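Co-fold these.
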Amino acid sequence: MPHNLIDRVLSGDRRATARLITLIENDGPQARGMLAALFPHTGQAHVVGVTGAPGTGKSTLVNELAKAYRKKDPAPRVGIIAVDPTSPFSGGALLGDRIRMRDLFGDPGVFIRSMATRGSLGGLARATSDAVKVLDAAGYDIILVETVGAGQSEVDIAKAAHTTVVVEAPGLGDDVQAIKAGILEIADVFAVNKADRDGVEHTVMALEMMLDLNHASRPTLHHGVLMPAESPAEPADETAAWRPPICKTIATRGEGVPALLEAVKAHRGYLEETHTMALRERTRVEDELHDIVGHLLVHRLMARLRPDELAHLVDRIVARELDPYTAAETLLQKMA
Amino acid sequence: MTDRRIRVLIAKPGLDGHDRGAKVVARALRDAGMEVIYTGLRQTPDMIVEAALQEDVDVVGLSILSGAHMTLVPRVVEGLKANGLDQVVVTVGGIIPDDDVPRLNAIGVKGIFGPGTSTQQIIAFIRQAVAGGE
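Predicted complex below.
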């Protein structure tokens, strides 16, 4: 069955694709073997992240972007992963992004999967990047990843995607918001959605001013990678710097979406021309490896503990008999 | 160390616009630790089947208050079977006359929840039905 499942995913079988994503989400050991078998078939897709505050219109915009891609000739196959938060209290989740994506029904070239964060805090689920690999191997050319409604620091998407679209809407804050660290720094493309509302020019201007400042104060941090400052020996190459374009959209009417799509494609072209794609891929893989090692270590350690061992240490920390670092060292001795 | 969660699709087939019940159930299942995919109003049986397939759900809960259940529910059940989703537990909530209950049971609908059903009953049913399928 497992190898059969891999073959079916590679041939684009939708049910097998859905099944494998579930196995990965549930974190079973068999899923890792299957990911290993799929891995050589990945690396083809353009992964586009869509993030922004709750209610800015991310789902609607993803729906319209997918439609716009499907109208291209030749039409790329589009996979969508829509992430919503897991309740910290019950562990359950209400995944509602499909409500805005009903237009895509009936198109066999589109696959939509809703995913709960299951405790991850960076705006994605732990399984998101592995689900991206499954869709990539299944032959989806464009993979749109919609994050949870992001505040200011849910920036994991910048590591998982090639191109990050940050969705803003008028009236969300003054221009000081625009110079804070975090989500605005990770944008490759801005979409100012709900552009029929008052204040849209103000929002665009605040973003433009922020970008002007970025430009003036290089080196800049881009996708978590510190871009090298121009040294005197290396004259400034203005064409090499990507300035995130700002696209005004009205997602509910599809207005401005073709221009947004072109901006996303232009960014991909930029990544390829400047060879930053390879650099970003390296950084992404390094981060991913780091995360996986941490995850596996914690699980292996927990598997070695007696059932009451952890609770006992927690009791002692609560009673102030032990500090958390010493407790952690005690646990790590188990790995030796 | 597996992290298995019950996934439920809550869907409203047909044309009635009353989704309060569906939302109450969706919320209750979320609070019971399940992952609930809510797809909104006016879904066709084909849309529901396709969503169940892509989301790989354990349960499809249909909310119907229009009286069209004997038309809509068999289409969803047949569609699931045609796509190899025989394992999926189908439940129906809403206004279902007593006479129709055995007919729905006969086509494989395992849980039928009329007015007055507590959310606890629905949660208990789903937990048992999903555990029984494994």
